[in-house]
């Protein structure tokens, strides 16, 4: 059965474009934010390190609707950032997905850095490496863990529905192009309307996207 | 350690089982009061359910017939879809064109007008499009479109969304562009989005009144209840599902329900129902004058083959 018979190709295309744009941007931003934190915490020894790790791990399980609610309160017209007019825009969705993905990326990357065997570090020191060399070696060893973290962050961002529904508002224009309608919010909407075929197509698209991104990143990772 | 883990698992499973049986038990407990040992499945719209009207009506029905009513509240489009699939015995919705199609296709039988309320146009208090100066719904929509003022649409095939499309049609306009935004959400969500976006929207009076304190929206054009244009009337119809198409439906109970809500007793329950001291629904099932249009699709003889 061709897609055209089920749903408007333009509608699907624009929803997928918004979803990917928002989630990829959010993951890129949170990666820039998360990796330095993960490396700093991973390499440094300081008091309260366990507390920081615990906070990061708690953040990994933070409920997305709560993030959505807090972001909405911050950016709504009478909120502290109301003047920026961010409410119900793709930017608002990027903010909330960033907040959701960052702890995931940080947490997974951190455990990857920490799990690099001490023997590797010691060997690196042993052949006369400086601290920088050792750090680079460790990063190289931990790269798969870091990539896994970024992937997990993307998975969390692209498949969550709670926060984007609240801050994005699931808005589409009359011609069927999406303003803030993502694959996930479109699925909830089509299901509620009884358009199960369209919802299923979108669900399949979402699964394929996640698989594609995974495959692509693993390939880049040199596996 | 191994043993402890098994214990935890066991406790978890037991907990889930208890929760599930609790839910099921609750269901059984509810139908314990049933004389017939059955329950009636009613597919309906969010507006009748969210306002609390159905609780009153269904309680009165259960008192009279001893049968509990399981109400499934969705948008009109979804409610009709469930009924087409035979997942309801009786359907209470508010989109005449969709109801007529449902009857023409043979899924619905014995339609009755039940009650009405109305729609209102709401928007930002500074009213950039000048909607408050208009008298007609079409003129109001025309003003919004000309000003390219943001308009938030339900966009979900609900009764309200259907009415909104009728008004655009009557005004001879095809809304589109950056200013026309579909939320695909319920009335409450859509009012919230409209309030934040400083946008206009068409809302049913009941939901707007119940949310008035939480949104920054003014009522700019009244519906017929307060002397506004008749186009904004919001009539509700009730239909039984055709037992010849879906043999699983409980047709007799469905007819008992239709009989009850369109009787003087049932109509009185609707009449006396208030929220915030305001009457939300006006009974419309009974009149001394003949009203044949309520039993069949509108104009069914002149254009029966029209879609």
UniProtKB/TrEMBL annotation, chain A:
It is found in: Cell membrane; Membrane. Gene3D superfamilies: MetI-like. SUPFAM superfamilies: MetI-like. Keywords: Membrane, Transmembrane, Transmembrane helix, Transport. Signal peptide: none annotated. The keyword Transmembrane helix applies. GO terms for biological process: transmembrane transport. It is a multi-pass membrane protein. Residues 16-217 form the ABC transmembrane type-1 domain. One of its GO terms (cellular component) is plasma membrane. Belongs to the binding-protein-dependent transport system permease family. NCBIfam families: ABC_perm1 (NF038017). This is ABC transporter permease. It comes from Natrinema longum.
Automatic annotation (TrEMBL), chain B:
Residues 41-264 form the PBP domain. It comes from Natrinema longum. PANTHER family: EXTRACELLULAR TUNGSTATE BINDING PROTEIN. InterPro entries: ABC-Tungstate_binding (IPR052738), PBP_domain (IPR024370). This is Substrate-binding domain-containing protein. It comes from the Archaea. PROSITE patterns: PROKAR_LIPOPROTEIN. Pfam families: PBP_like_2.
């Amino acid at each position: 059965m061709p897609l055209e018979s089920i749903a408007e190709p333009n509608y699907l295309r624009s929803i997928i474009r918004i979803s990917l744009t928002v989630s990829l941007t959010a993951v890129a931003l949170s990666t820039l934010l998360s990796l330095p934190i993960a490396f700093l915490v991973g390499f440094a020894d300081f008091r309260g390190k366990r507390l920081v790790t615990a906070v990061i791990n708690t953040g990994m399980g933070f409920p997305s609707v709560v993030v959505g609610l807090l972001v909405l309160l911050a950016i709504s017209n009478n909120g502290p950032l109301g003047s920026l007019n961010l409410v119900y825009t793709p930017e608002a969705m990027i903010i909330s997905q960033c907040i959701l993905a960052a702890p995931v990326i940080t947490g997974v990357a951190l455990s990857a850095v920490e799990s690099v065997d001490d023997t590797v570090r010691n060997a690196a020191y042993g052949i006369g490496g400086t601290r920088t060399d050792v750090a680079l070696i460790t990063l190289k060893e931990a790269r798969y863990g870091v990539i896994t973290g970024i992937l997990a962050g993307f998975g969390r961002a692209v498949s969550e529905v709670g926060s984007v529904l609240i801050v994005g508002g699931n808005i589409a224009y009359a011609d069927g192009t999406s303003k803030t309608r993502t694959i996930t919010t479109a699925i909830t909407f089509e299901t509620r309307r009884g358009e199960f075929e369209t919802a299923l197509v979108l669900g399949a698209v979402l699964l394929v996207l996640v698989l594609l991104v995974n495959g692509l990143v693993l390939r880049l990772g040199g596996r | 350690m191994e043993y402890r883990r098994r214990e935890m698992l066991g406790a978890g499973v037991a907990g889930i089982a208890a929760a599930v049986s609790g839910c099921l038990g609750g269901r059984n407990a509810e139908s314990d009061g049933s004389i017939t040992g059955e329950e009636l499945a009613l597919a309906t719209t969010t507006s009748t359910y969210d306002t609390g009207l159905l609780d009153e009506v269904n309680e009165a029905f259960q008192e009279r017939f001893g049968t509990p009513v399981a109400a499934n509240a969705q948008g009109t489009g979804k409610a009709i879809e469930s009924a087409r699939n035979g997942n309801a015995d009786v359907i209470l919705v508010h989109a005449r064109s969709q109801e007529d199609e449902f009857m023409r296709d043979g899924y619905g039988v014995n339609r009755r007008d039940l009650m009405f309320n109305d729609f209102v146009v709401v928007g930002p208090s500074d009213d950039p499009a000048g909607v408050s100066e208009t008298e007609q719904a079409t003129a109001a929509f025309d003003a919004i479109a000309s000003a390219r003022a943001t308009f938030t649409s339900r966009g979900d095939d609900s009764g309200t969304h259907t009415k909104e499309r009728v008004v655009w049609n009557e005004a001879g306009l095809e809304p589109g562009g950056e200013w026309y935004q579909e939320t695909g959400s319920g009335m409450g969500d859509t009012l919230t989005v409209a309030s934040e976006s400083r946008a206009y929207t068409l809302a049913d009076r009941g939901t707007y009144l119940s949310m008035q304190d939480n949104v920054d929206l003014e009522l700019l054009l009244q519906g017929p209840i307060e002397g506004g244009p008749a186009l904004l009337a919001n009539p509700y119809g009730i239909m039984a599902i055709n037992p010849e198409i879906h043999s699983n439906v409980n047709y007799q109970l469905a007819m008992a329900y239709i009989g009850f809500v369109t009787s003087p007793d049932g109509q009185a329950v609707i009449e006396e129902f208030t929220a915030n001291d305001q009457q939300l629904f006006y009974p419309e099932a009974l009149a001394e004058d003949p009203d044949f249009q309520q039993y069949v699709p509108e104009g069914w003889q002149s254009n029966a083959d029209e879609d």
